[in-house]
């Protein structure tokens, strides 16, 4: 079994063991995976979809 390293889309930190993280498809295109750490979610740090350019949170 291989474990994939998870990196926050906003801060680029390893969040593999972050229990408050969220992994979701891009709200606009649905093709890119957005990964957010609990800290960036809490302070509402912006993220950008590399595929379509969508930025959030709004």
Which strand order spans the largest sheet, edge to edge or round the barrel? Answer: 1-2
Largest β sheet strand count, sense and barrel closure: 2 strands, antiparallel
Percent range for β-strand residues: 15-25%
The oligomeric status of these chains comes to single chain
Helix/strand order? EEHEE
Query: Which structural category fits the helices and strands?
Result: mainly beta
**In the residues, how many domains can be counted?**
1
Uncertain runs are none
Number of beta strands: 4
Mean pLDDT level? 93
Number of helices: 1
Using only C-alpha atoms, the radius of gyration works out to: 11 Å
Described by the principal axes of the CA atoms, the overall outline is globular
Range of helix content: under 10%
In whole angstroms, how far apart are the ends?
A: 37 Å
List the helices and strands and how they pair.
Layout: E1 22-25, E2 33-36, H1 38-42, E3 47-48, E4 55-56
Antiparallel strand pairs: 1-2, 3-4
Give an account of the 3D structure.
With 58 residues, the chain is mainly beta. It has one domain. It has one helix at residues 38-42, and strands spanning 22-25, 33-36, 47-48, 55-56.
List its salient traits.
globular, mainly beta, 21% strand, single chain, two-stranded antiparallel ribbon, 58 residues, 9% helix, 1 helix, two-stranded antiparallel sheet
């Amino acid at each position: 079994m291989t474990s994939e390293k998870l990196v926050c889309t906003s801060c680029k930190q390893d969040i593999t063991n972050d229990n408050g993280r969220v992994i979701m498809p891009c709200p606009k295109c649905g093709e890119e995976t957005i990964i957010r750490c609990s800290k960036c979610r809490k302070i509402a740090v912006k993220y950008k979809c590399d595929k379509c350019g969508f930025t959030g949170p709004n």
